[in-house]
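We modelled the chain as a single entity of 192 amino acids. Its sequence is:
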Amino acid sequence: MWHIIQKLEMDVLEVQDNFLGAKLSQAVHTNKNCTLHFSFTVGSQVRLSTLHRRKEYKTKGEKHMAKFMPCYDGPYTITEVNEQHSTVTLDLPNPPNIFPTFHTSQVIPYIESDTNKFPSHHFKEPEPIITEDGKEEQFIDKILDAHRRGWGYQYLVRWCSFGQEHDKWLPGSELEDCKALDICLASRNGSP
């Protein structure tokens, strides 16, 4: 009987040694990517991981994800840095329900492409449309989402010829006589 108890104690010690070895191995592999220098500063630009925000890339009613969904979006400007907690606060464009502070594992530095070396990689932004009375106007491609705000609704708008980084939440009062809003409401059976 005493022999069985000693065998169990040795097995427990061996398991503890194996756990410690696994922890050390994980730490070695993780620390390969870590540095003592905090590389993010206020005012620099970063790209944000879309891993935990995938539902933003779906339109309401779709049951599946986009096939070629981007891994990162942006660039976004850093407004605040917390080195102690390894977090950065980003200047997100018109975020209704997103907390703007992210761990540094969720962001990568933004490196702007050199248009002299790679002219085909640079896309010109479309110029605004100027009406006859001199007002600047943009066309709405589609409305992606809606939610209640105060007494009315706000709508997430995607502009024609612009990417998702230019999407903007607009109040319903600014979308009067908008064909995209009519299509959105018709697809939702009249409810925003």
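As a brief sanity check on the tokenised model: Strands lie at 45-49, 72-82, 87-91, 101-103, 107-109, 129-130, 136-137, 140-149, 152-159, 168-171. Residues 45-109 form one domain.
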